Amino acid sequence: MSSPYATPTLPGARDAHELYLRDPDVxxxxxxxxxxxxxxxxxxxxxxxxxxxxxxxxxxAAAAVAGDLPVLGVVExxxxxxxxxxxxxRAHGVRLSxxxxxxxxxxxxxxxxxxxxxAGILSFFGTGGLxxxxxxxxxxxxxxxxxxxxxxxxxxxxxxxxxxxxxxxALLLEHRVPAVSxxxxxxxxxxxxxxxxxxxxxxxxxxxxxxxxxxxxxSRPEVARxxxxxxxxxxxxxxxxxxxxxxxxxxxxxxxPVAEDITxxxxxxxxxxxxxxxxxxxxMIALRDEVTRQYGYDRRVRLGAAGGLGxxxxxxxxxxxxxxxxxxxxINQLTPEADLSAAAKTLLAAADIAxxxxxxxxxxFEIGARVQVLKKGSRFxxxxxxxxxxxxxxxxxxxxxxxxxxxxxxxIFGATVDEIWARTRDFWQDRDPKQxxxxxRDRKHRMALCFRWYLGMSTRWATEGExxxxxxxxxxxxxxxxxxxRWAGPDIGAPGVVEIAENLMRGAAALTRRDAxxxxxxxxxxxxxxxxxxxxx
Length: 537
Fold this sequence. Notes:
The chain is of the alpha/beta class. The protein is built from 20 helices and 17 strands. Strand 5, helix 4 and strand 6 form a beta-alpha-beta unit. The two termini are 48 Å apart.
């Protein structure tokens, strides 16, 4: 019988150690193992005669050559360390195009950052919600231990406390933090522009080099455009006048984007706009290309994907969509390195993909910002919403009905309003006394500060594992947590942050290879990519 295929050609050298997949329509069970060996180059060939449905055979390259078998295509090596952008890996000195994202209140802890950095993975310390003294202490510790390794810290936009944002930026620069994740920004501020522009200089090749690399986390095109463009002249002039930038640094800042890495955040735990990554990332890629042409940049801004990444399938899809790197966040709360109580981790590990909702955010309570949190096993979301409904309906605590006041004190605060105000006053006296001055003349602001006490304490109770407040734990997460739990299974123990990264990237590489084989005609139901716990590796 004559072959229906074109004249056979064998790509590259005829290496006898390369294995070939024979007859793509009926590949045997060993095909999955070969494809999951992500460093092996495979060639898919087809028999010239019909073969039994029992399965095809795997033959060395020499046998394929001797049999003059038609070649349908090549499945190239695709390891975890080849996914994503090589430029990203070079720029940050990392092994994987994978980022461990910041989680506020130090949940993304120094231990987490250290473990990731020593494995060649970029990770960010979560500064949000911490005192400036705590941030400085931890950043100084990390700077001393991780010199020359990839790591960073979070700069969180803080419209209610701009002085804290500026002080955080100053200490990150003082300790020469190599990378800064700028998150929750709705516009550019002097603090984030200062981080981006400080230390700019020209390298030996004449190209502009950065002392601090900015990864801007965005979910809106209009905000992304600000980070893709050069820093505004008005802000640069202000920073030069204040002695926070040199004229030379400001001149160079006008030639380069504010950030050369932009993390496109889809629906995620914590602060989220709830936008699907499948729609958002292509829009950002087109915007990136448009702005690059507009300003004539000599190198491409890298775009990462975040939000909803809890399985190898999701990670592989993000890379297939065009992501230069991926970022995971809430799933890392399950790790021993996360500064979160065992009780909170138990709740997270039991979640499925529908066990989440949104609730008012503590840091932007007055403007109605929301965060995605765990719903199952916690009353926080309902109580936080109850507080926000009262805040929007009344001008002060004195307008609450007797029934509402009783509920507030007995069910939510666990103390009288006067006791909570005393604790709130002590906190803001140290943190930002201007808030108290405003509260004295604005009853509604005083009410907001009291309500924010509960929202803030709910995260502390979760971090510290306050048993009596277990039902009030505020845990930032989304459907990716449920997807990860279902994929990894209940028997993985306490997965380390590096173990999770390795599993997701290894699985994504194997799936990418399987997809390539399917496109070449391999038609088989492959077994699922399994999670490998550290004890089983």
